[in-house]
Amino acid sequence: MGMLFSNYQVKNIILKNRIVMSPMCMYASSEKDGRVTEFHKIHYASRAFGQVGLIFLESTSVDPQGRISVFDLGIWDNLHVQGLKSIVDAVHNGGSKIGIQLSHAGRKAIVEGSVYAPSSIRYKEGMKLPIEMSYEDIKRTINDFKNGAIRSQEAGFDVIEIHAAHGYLINQFLSPLSNKRTDEYGGSRENRFRFLKEIIEEINSIWNGPLFVRISASEYHPEGNKIEDFIYYAQMMKELGVDLIDCSSGAVVPAKIDVFPGYQVKFAEKIKREVNIDTGAVGLITNALLAEEILNNKRGDLIFIARELLRDPYWPLRAAVQLKENIDFPNSYEKAWTEILPINNNAIYQRWYPGKES
Ligand SMILES: Cc1cc2nc3c(=O)[nH]c(=O)nc-3n(C[C@H](O)[C@H](O)[C@H](O)COP(=O)(O)O)c2cc1C
Fold this sequence. Notes:
- By secondary structure, the protein is α/β, with parallel strands linked by helices.
- It has two domains: about 10-325, Alpha-Beta Barrel (TIM Barrel), CATH 3.20.20.70; about 330-358, no CATH class.
- The protein has helices spanning about 40-50, 80-95, 135-155, 170-175, 190-205, 225-240, 265-275, 290-295, 305-310, 315-325, 335, 345-350, and strands at about 10, 15, 20, 55-60, 75, 95-105, 115, 130, 160-165, 210-215, 245-250, 280, 300-305.
- An eight-stranded parallel β-barrel has the order 3-4-6-9-10-11-12-13, surrounded by seven helices. A two-stranded antiparallel sheet has the order 1-2.
- α2 packs across α3 (about 135-155), α5 runs parallel beside α6 and α6 crosses α7.
- The longest helix is centred in the middle third of the chain and has 21 residues, at about 135-155.
- The structure holds flavin mononucleotide.
């Protein structure tokens, strides 16, 4: 068996394969109150039937003023737990593990009212000028992440991922381009890391499960954070007990990025090698052979797939066909997949007619 369909253990959780559905905002919370809808349940459960090992819920906001859009999912109130639990149950019923991405958009929030950031610098023309966060705002937001983790645990999620990428609030603290503070949350690299550090510490004070952090490993700007800075941050995160760094890039400031299949894998590879921490590779990975290559050459430990899983919820089954892997799939779909998957026909026959000769 190749690597893509091998198990992956992180803390108490075993994933049946290395395929991860990357977090993707669905803008489908219809009441603008952050609640789960029928769409979400069917959307995520479909990818479980498609045999994705770990399914990440989209960026889910710990504070209503931290929403990327008013149609985002929320986890800022106890009333969100029940709906989130219904997604967790649906995905578990489909045989996959499920993670949640906890986030706050900071100056990139598109909501009514004030938006907040480490410094009062807008992301770009036409976007709101954020209010510089006070010490109390910082402490309250760290606590919002902790409460989000408590509710994630209540809802039954297997993994928590902190969204520290794509120019959202935590990334705004990390980046010298958006953080011009002169207190202990700004200035040096150590100070810019403090906000994320305290969030990790607070989450880990109540959460024993796997903790991932998504980063933007390059800001594509001469004065922004570089991969060397992220090697430092990753080392700190390893010491704080983070299990995996999910390596994305960009969106901190507007920039032109040259994209091609696997264009961000180099970040996952470098951090894995230099820091000796597990990493996730993401970005235009649509071919199972590329995924195998990344895993075989130890350039990453998990393969995050986003848009391809919107196009095809059954991508893992297609990958199994391409790699000639014998994998499990829902009994109800057998008539379709037995023809093209290299499975043992007798085993399938026995499921339908137990005890009879095929
Ligand atoms: C519709 C859509 C929504 C997204 N929402 C999120 C999100 O909520 N959180 C996040 O970290 N990345 C988000 N992303 C980025 C993806 O997770 C992924 O990193 C990116 O699309 C590159 O992977 P791909 O080439 O496999 O699509 C989103 C991407 C898309 C297409």
